[in-house]
Amino acid sequence: MKRILIVGSGDVARRALPWLLARFRVFALVRRAEQAAELRAAGAVPIVADLDDRRSLRRLAGLADAVLHFAPPPASGEVDARTRRLLAALGSARSLAQRLVYISTTGVYGDCRGAWVDETRPCRAQTARARRRVDAERRLRAFARRNRVRLALLRAPGIYAGDRLPLERLRRGDPVLSADEDVHTNHIHAEDLAHAACLALFRARGGRAFNVVDDTGLRMGDYFDLVADACGLPRPPRLGREELGRRLSALTLSFMSESRRLGNSRLKRELRMRLRYPTVSDGLRTAAPPARG
């Protein structure tokens, strides 16, 4: 591989850039000129295009030997039209990308009632945003089979880093579930997710899905307590689910309606991934910013 295209040039992509630029010529799809200038300064070749505009994607055909697809689906609907348009553009070239890595979500499993989950569990997404991810995965698998492209699906849970912590929520004093009603949650540091995407380019077997999660076993409220303690903020109050429903938005509550514990043995065995931050506590020791007064 000599040329790589990044689709979705956000935080995780920027963390992957140093590793990628040391090895390849990197093209990065961006929607705005100010993003293009930033990526150009970092050493990438920006491609101004929009996944919501089919005509703007024509330049992507045959551009790269591999594609890192980090872009989220649309904010509404049951399908991921963005991935559909991207695949149409990539598939229109005589020379197709040989490898494709997609960052999906562990939400595709739906509520597992606290059970341990590996990648063989069927997808039973229960929210519209997760169903859009399932739709993207299915489209990508079909494209990969049809065109003999090596595909890796990276299913990520809650992504955190020093600048990706729920500090405003803690400052507002938003409540979390009481311990007896709390849900199991899973996490990955943004640096480890970026590293996993890079490793998947070379080490993933075609069509494989990977739970990209760390070794932490936490309930959601415990995670907020850890962040609060690390940042010198008050721990959030704990409330029962019924009372919480009167205090928080439907979107926020939806993240508290699913409980699962995710195994990462495939990540470690097949990608030979060594986590830089094996637990949230490890990540917070170096990532947590000081609390504002």
Description:
The protein has 293 residues and is of the alpha/beta class. It has a single domain (3-162, 186-216, 261-277), classed as NAD(P)-binding Rossmann-like Domain (Rossmann fold, 3-Layer(aba) Sandwich). The chain is 37% helix and 19% strand. It has helices spanning 11-21, 33-42, 81-91, 128-147, 167-172, 190-203, 220-231, 241-245, 250-254, 265-270, 280-287, and strands spanning 3-7, 25-30, 45-48, 66-69, 99-105, 116-117, 150-156, 158-160, 176-177, 184-185, 187-189, 208-211, 218-219, 238-239, 261-262. The strands form 5 sheets. It has a 7-stranded parallel sheet with strand order 3-2-1-4-5-7-12, sandwiched between helices. Helix 3 (81-91) packs parallel to helix 4 (128-147). The N and C termini lie far apart (49 Å).
Task: Give the CA-CA distance, first to last residue.
Answer: 49 Å
Number of H- or I-type helical stretches: 11
Q: What would you give as the CATH superfamily?
A: NAD(P)-binding Rossmann-like Domain
The largest sheet is: 7 strands, parallel
Shape: globular
Quick one: how many beta strands? 15
Mean pLDDT metric: 94
| Count of discrete structural domains | 1
Estimated share of beta-strand residues: 15-25%
Radius of gyration: 19 Å
| Estimated structural class | alpha/beta
Name of the level-1 CATH class: Alpha Beta
Strand order of the largest sheet: 3-2-1-4-5-7-12
What level of helicity do the residues show?
A: 25-40%
- CATH architecture call: 3-Layer(aba) Sandwich
Spans where pLDDT lies below 50 across 5 or more residues = none
* The CATH topology: Rossmann fold
**Secondary-structure element pattern, one letter each:** EHEHEEHEEHEEHEEEHEEHEHHEHH
